[in-house]
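Hi R.,

Here are the chain sequences for the assembly we discussed:
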Amino acid sequence: MNKTIFKDWDFPIDRFFLSAGPCSAESAEQVMETAKALSKEKISFLRAGIWKPRTRPGSFEGVGLKGLAWLDQARQETGLKIGTEVAEPAHVEACLEFGLDILWVGARTTTNPFSVQAIADALKGTDIPVLVKNPISADIGLWIGAIERLANAGITKIGAIHRGFSSSLEMRYRNTPNWKMPIELKRRLPEIPIICDPSHICGKTELIPAIAQEALDLLFDGLMLEVHPRPETALSDPEQQLTPDQFSSLIQSITVPTEQSNSSKFVGELTQLRENVDELDSRLIDLLGERMEVVRKMGKLKAEQKVSTLQPKRWQEIVDNRVAKGSQRNLSENFMLQLMQSIHEEAIRQQEEDRVCL
Ligand code: PEP
Ligand code: MN
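And here is the predicted structure of the full complex:
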């Protein structure tokens, strides 16, 4: 990895940054047992939650301060670096006192600019690395805003963690991956390393390997994975924590791709295929332009007759028909729906633009 933030840290494979550990620190023994098992892999830091933001009160809310001492002991025994989540200035102060190696801001905290600012203020004058999880909702502004608040406070080693987004439409994952969000973050902030947290995306261990691999295929800089010696007894997130053995096999099975290849055969073939795609995209844009011209004519007709721009029955027909047609070309329902929604939104915008000008 070419990012300066983790320059002196351990990496299991090449540029690939790796954090692992229990969702929550539960006891000195559990932290030590996990740390010892994980120290066999070359992990970059041991993670464990000390203060747990739970959705409902009454569930396990973390062991608090004493957990920091357990992490510190595990560090002394194994040499692993240690990190935890901070949600308020008092957490930051306690972590700095214990000399934690890295901190992260949780998804619920990133959602709240007041909290992020308070954390950033508490961090002023330090140079500890800080990772920022994406906010629970798919709002890239809040994610970038949190990173900016830390940067403005003088923190220079900032990374991002993609842990998925809450969505009422998602059935398979606990938090929908919505890969376009981290891809957009990477485009807007190319200097910021980005790590994927497949545990909180998946919510179930069996889905984790595929998401972990996909993150690396999308050129993420690393992974954060929840690992517990006995996941079924875990006090938080029992269904998504890997055993140390499952973790080791996952790390061994994963492939870390490089962005480029020197093979001239590969470069030649890819260049040709890319030219093909460029040509197809150009035709798509011409077609979309042509479609919008027709749409504008329909808009004029509707306006003259004082007929509504939105035609719900026709829109439903279009959705049904295009989704079915798309499936014959191996295009997913979700993709077809999103594509048609975008086209329809632009069509409405253009028709309304003409109406206002009438
Ligand atoms: C965690 O990492 O255990 C955690 C609470 O994650 P998130 O902030 O992503 O929900
Ligand atoms: Mn968790």
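The chain is about 50% helix and 10% strand. The mean pLDDT is 95.

Let me know if anything looks off.

Best,
T.
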